[in-house]
Amino acid sequence: MDRTTTLLALVLVVAVTVEVLLFRIFARGGVYFIDDNTPLMIQNGYTSLVFSGNVLFNYAAPVTLLAMVVAAIPLVARSSSLSYRAIGVVVMAVAAVSGLMVLGYSGEALSDTYWAVSGIAVAGISVIALRKVPSKPLRLFVVMTALSYLAIYGFKSGQALPGIGGVNLLTIGEWVGLASFLTLGFVLRSTLNRRALIVASVVALGAGGMAFGRADSIPLIATWAFGLSLSAPYWLYIAALWIVLAFSGSAIARGQYLTGVGVLLVFFGHRGLPLTYFNDLAICGLLFVVREVIDVNAPVILGKAYGSSRGRKIGVRAVGLSSLFR
Predict the structure, then answer these.
(1) Using CA atoms, how far apart are residues 243 and 249, in angstroms rounded to an integer?
(2) How far is CA 55 from the centre of its chain?
């Protein structure tokens, strides 16, 4: 089951990465260079790429639900820990309710149930992280991400919940989420992989360079693709982008697939949560992170990369993806 979870996680993150690039970023950015005077060949190429991104968008949504269930099953079926079993059941409940909504079922009660079990899921996963994740920055990442999404759930509840100091809960959720990614930078000092560093630097420089080129496109793409208001200084978002890519690439290079993929899935979410898919990505990502460091048969800490006494690598030779960053 662990190998199945790992393989499914890798398939999912590839699909999500491509859909983000083609459907959420390229499609929206295309309005700045595609018009009636653009050669027909370029227009057709643009349309084909956006269509491919849309296909992967619709493919990634059910795969996310499947990944959540596959990752949660061992917590329920094999764990001797009552808390692990409870979280597994709650995560599967999130997937089940989300699946019903994807199939077209709707209603206020179903929607309220979805957000309620989602809140329980992220809170429960953060509790497990506090108890079992040995790396303090990674522990903070999970907990702060959970707090971020709880704030966003509060904003979406429609109950007019107050913010803090005149700042609404959605913005607070964005800021806390941004800070959660920045905390991962403290792990990189001793675990940074050279190829991951190069990839992260190239992407971050490209994103940062947009501020000196088509700066007017940045807010549109940020809102459409990730639900970000960019209310914090722009350089913090670029720093978070660099840290996430460097951290995830380095984790994959060490064979810590679920950790690397989990952080990426959270990053690729949409903070406005216009669709349940984006919330499912975040919950799936957080679940992957804690699944990497716990043994479902006996709640002990595993994972050499983050300072525990025993280490394991899941399917390194079978999957072989870690060689991309070596």
Answers:
(1) 10
(2) 19
Instruction: Please state, in angstroms and rounded to a whole number, the distance separating the CA atoms of residues 16 and 278.
Output: 11
Which residue is listed with tokens 């990369």?
305
- The residues with which 164 forms a beta bridge, in sequence order, are 167
Per the domain annotation, does 47 fall within a domain?
no
Closest CA to 270 of 93, 116, 107, 60: 60
Q: Has residue 294 been placed in a domain?
A: yes
Spatial neighbors of 49 by CB under 8 A, at least 6 apart, are 22, 26
Distances (CA, A) of 98 to 101, 120, 245, 314: 5, 15, 28, 29
Q: What is the pTM of this model?
A: 0.86
In a domain, 258, yes or no: yes
| Residue 175 domain flag | yes
Q: Is the dihedral of CA 2, 3, 4, 9 positive or negative?
A: positive
Domain count, the chain: 1
Q: Along the chain (326 residues), what's the average pLDDT of each consecutive run of 10 residues? A: 87 96 86 79 89 93 96 86 90 96 90 94 95 90 96 79 75 95 90 92 93 82 92 95 96 93 96 94 96 63 37 35 46
User: Quick one: pLDDT at residue 159?
Assistant: 62
Domain span including residue 99: 67-325
Do residues 316 and 187 touch, judged by C-beta distance below 8 A? no
Distance CA 111, CA 64 (A): 19
Chain centre to alpha carbon of residue 130: 19
Tokens of 13: 């993150």
